[in-house]
Write a sequence for this structure.
C-alpha cells in the first residue's frame, strides 16, 4: 500500500512538471505580432522568432543603426502610435526600405 501511495505522489509530481513545462514554453513565445503578414522579411523573421517582443527588440536595434545616418529618427518617425498594434504612417514602409530594411 505504501508503494502505491509513493507511486501516486511521483506520478502527480511528474504530471505537474510536465504541465508547468508546457505552460512556460507557451508564455515564452510572447504576444503575437499585431500585423498578420509583416511586409518585410526583417519583421517577418522577428515575429516568427518571438512575437511582438522580438519584433520590438529588432526594431530598436534597427533604429539604433538608422540613427547613425539620421540622428533625428524616432519610433514616431514611422509609427502613428507607439504601442498596441504600432500603426504605421503612410510613408513608413518606404522609409524603412530606404534605410536598408529587407
Amino acid at each position: 500500500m505504501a508503494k502505491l501511495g509513493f507511486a501516486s505522489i511521483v506520478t502527480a509530481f511528474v504530471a505537474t512538471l510536465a504541465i508547468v513545462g508546457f505552460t512556460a514554453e507557451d508564455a515564452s513565445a510572447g504576444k503575437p505580432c499585431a500585423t498578420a503578414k509583416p511586409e518585410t522579411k526583417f519583421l517577418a523573421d522577428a515575429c516568427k522568432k518571438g512575437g511582438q517582443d522580438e519584433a520590438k527588440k529588432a526594431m530598436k536595434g534597427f533604429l539604433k543603426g538608422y540613427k547613425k545616418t539620421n540622428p533625428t529618427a524616432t519610433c514616431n518617425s514611422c509609427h502613428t502610435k507607439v504601442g498596441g498594434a504600432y500603426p504605421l504612417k503612410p510613408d513608413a514602409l518606404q522609409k524603412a526600405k530606404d534605410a536598408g530594411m529587407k
